[in-house]
Design brief:
The complex is a heterodimer of chains A (121) and B (342). Helices cover 66% and strands 0% of the residues of chain A. Chain A is an all-alpha fold. Chain A has a single domain, classed as NADH:ubiquinone/plastoquinone oxidoreductase, chain 3 (Methane Monooxygenase Hydroxylase, Chain G, domain 1, Up-down Bundle). In chain A, helix 2 runs antiparallel to helix 3. Chain B has 342 residues and is mainly alpha-helical. The model of chain B has no long low-confidence stretch (mean pLDDT 84). At the A-B interface, helix 1, helix 2 and helix 3 of A face helix 1, helix 3, helix 6, helix 11 and helix 13 of B.
């Protein structure tokens, strides 16, 4: 197995260990805790009054446009990372390229700004 | 195939896993006791816990045992499977952050080449857990809290990533060890005794990173998602007993990990001025230095948390998109110009 894959094997092992730790604790808790469910106990909490409406209510996702913008910018960030590590090699060429890239990016942000998308309505 | 200790891969990984399983809960307990219990109490003219152990040091362990004995209540309407999985996802996210944190020349779990990129990716996994918790609870407060958390975390994810970019440009690497090395071997106008901690050259990046980290950790003034006074806890309102404790532990452990990331990227990491970069003794001294610096950074995070009032949701979004993101993009360009021209 190559070193690269092996180092990510460690990551996988740590992820598995975290899950295992959580479940071990649940196991310990299962032995220690009481279990006496009553219908009243299992009602959703709404500051002491009976819940109004159905269990899953509809809610306006105000940040929907932000989420779309986020996806765009996050993909751009992925492009900037490899550039940032190699800037010394690319020197002026890389700098100008990335300046254009970021300029277009900022243009997009200002467009969204002017269109009033960045308001929390 | 042998690692730093000269042992086989499996033996070495087992040892590292064992150390991590001790260090991570200890780190969470330490931050929780020092800052959440004692410092907050002193700042509010209280004494904090006194009775359990000397100066109340064992209070959090007593609390954990108490949580273990609490009844595990799933609301009847909840989506059972997702409800149960959510805290585990959040915990795993903060656990995985510790894999790349370097505390000495060899004292690191796995020195991934993608270092900081990996850390950013893993830390954003916790949003999934929060959304799962908010949705699966079938509770209006939890749903609102989960949606707010998602909106806030994605807004501050970007400045966080972009602030890191300045450090990456300066260090020419994503690898956290290489970032420490770049700071250790750097010079300030030809003066190389203390290296070049990037907080000096990347001060704006550091500020953006700390503000965004504050928001990612949903600490006040960015605690809209868990606002007690209006959402009574937000996404974890329906959680009881140990599942609630997992959310709490993950929050404090992530605060520790983010302080460690800030230390590694901006404060010179584990390197001590005057030592060789690879000196074996730093494997012992490095973790101590790291811990001191981490506590200083964490102190700032919690100091702000206990001092400032909560931001409104629209102010919070406006601040991220109209101030932090343009500023961090400008920071990248300016850092690039300095890197190439100077």
């Amino acid at each position: 197995m190559s070193d690269l894959l092996r180092s990510y094997l460690t990551v996988a092992i740590f992820g598995a260990a975290a899950v295992l730790m959580a479940f071990t604790m649940f196991g310990v808790a299962r032995v220690l805790r009481p279990q006496r469910p009553t219908p009243q106990k299992l009602i959703a909490y709404e500051s002491g009054v009976d819940p109004v409406g159905s269990d899953w209510t509809q809610s306006q996702i105000r940040y929907y446009v932000f989420a779309v913008l986020f996806v765009l910018f996050d993909v751009e960030a992925v492009f900037i990372f490899p550039w940032a590590t190699r800037l010394e090699v690319y020197a002026l060429f890389g700098l100008v390229e990335m300046a254009i890239f970021i300029f277009i990016l900022v243009l997009g942000l200002f467009y969204a700004w002017r269109k009033g998308v960045l308001r929390w309505v | 195939m042998t690692g730093a200790l000269g042992l086989a891969y499996w033996a070495e990984t087992s040892i590292k896993l064992g150390v991590a399983l001790i260090v991570i809960p200890t780190a969470a307990l330490m931050l929780g006791y020092l800052f959440l219990l004692k410092m907050m109490a002193f700042m509010q003219s209280r004494l904090g816990p006194q009775d359990v152990g000397p100066y109340g040091t064992l209070q959090l362990i007593a609390d954990a045992v108490k949580f273990l004995q609490k009844e595990d209540i799933h609301p009847a309407a909840a989506d059972r499977r997702v409800f149960r999985a959510a805290p585990v996802v959040v915990l795993a996210s903060s656990f995985l952050l510790f894999v790349v944190l370097p505390t000495g020349p060899d004292a690191v779990v796995e020195n991934l080449d993608t270092g900081i990129f990996y850390a950013m990716a893993v830390s954003s996994l916790s949003v999934l857990g929060v959304l799962m918790a908010g949705w699966a609870s079938a509770n209006k407060y939890a749903l609102l809290g989960g949606l707010r958390a998602a909106g806030q975390l994605i807004a501050y994810e970007l400045p966080l990533i972009l602030a890191v970019m300045g450090v990456v440009i300066q260090a020419d690497s994503l690898n956290l060890q290489e970032i420490v090395r770049a700071q250790a071997e750097g010079e300030i106008f030809g003066f190389g005794l203390i290296g070049n901690p990037f907080i000096l050259t990347q001060f704006i990046g550091f500020l953006i990173f700390m503000i965004s980290a504050q928001a990612e950790l949903t600490q006040t003034p960015f605690d809209m998602p868990v606002a007690e006074t209006e959402l009574v806890g937000g996404f974890h309102v329906e959680y009881t007993g140990f599942r609630f404790l997992l959310f709490f532990m993950a929050e404090v452990a992530t605060a520790f990990a983010f302080s460690a990331l800030a230390t590694v990227m901006f404060l010179g990491g584990w390197w001590i001025p005057g030592f060789d970069f690879d000196a074996p003794v730093l494997n012992v001294l490095g973790p101590v230095v790291m811990l001191v610096k981490i506590l200083v950074v964490a102190f700032i995070i919690f100091w702000i948390r206990f001092t400032y009032p909560r931001l409104r949701e629209d102010q919070l979004q406006k601040f991220a998109w109209k101030v932090l993101i343009p500023l961090s993009l400008a920071n990248i360009v300016v850092t690039g110009i300095f890197k190439v021209v100077l």
